[in-house]
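BUG: 3D viewer hangs when loading the predicted structure for this chain

Environment: internal workstation, default settings.
Expected: structure renders.
Actual: progress bar stalls at 90%.

Input used:
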Amino acid sequence: MSDVSDDSYLYAVAVAAAAATVVLRVDIMKHRWKKRRTWVRLLRSRLELGTCNLLLTELRATDTQMYANFTEVLPAEFDFLLCAIREQITGSGRWRRPIPPHTKLAVTLEYLDTGM
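Structure tokens produced before the viewer hung:
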């Protein structure tokens, strides 16, 4: 008779374990299908209104000396550097939209200029 009670106990434990596995799996699936949030707050049109797109474009068109003061290189030198390293600094964009190469270069030149 002890064999029967041991078998029923093992059966009850197996059923409980299976039920717990199903409950956990359902909970994981609910979590997986939640609406994902963005990693950063999306500003109205950050790529169009940012420093590199507004300020540098305007300075390049109107005042090349101020552009050179900001980037520490003339526009022709900036274009030469950009053509030389564009392939190495271009992002893949698998998860988010990558930062454009001209923006990366401008930020890097500004960083190197300030020494921070």
